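It would be a great kindness if you could assist me with a short task in structural biology. The matter concerns a single protein, recorded as an amino acid sequence and a row of backbone structure tokens. The record follows directly beneath this note:
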Amino acid sequence: MLGEIVWLMSQDKVERHRPISDLERQVMPAILYREFRIFYIPQEMGLDSQPRLVKPEAGKPALEADGDPGLPLMPIGAVLWAMVSDAVAKMIEENPKALEKLRPEQWRSGSQKVIVRIIAAMGGANEMVREASK
């Protein structure tokens, strides 16, 4: 999971220039708390094709597409979120930069889902956020 997310970050023009410390602050908590979703397309489609998002269970990698064990998948994006308290959500709303510095105890402090990071170098960010918000 971490490898797929790091690979996706390396493909994104903005994400690839972020410091490695961002992995510890924003990626690892999402993985540890299983508050992320990685989106895939069948590998044979290639990046030029219209993506057909495969929805694995949140926090678990997809190994096959549509029940076809012979069809390998390629990650195309990820959404990471935190479940924060009302107070933390208000703090983020007032200062979006605070999202980059969530402390571990804030990461899972309540029931409000806050998107921490969208990694969509291949496009489809809106669809990924919609799916992850369900």
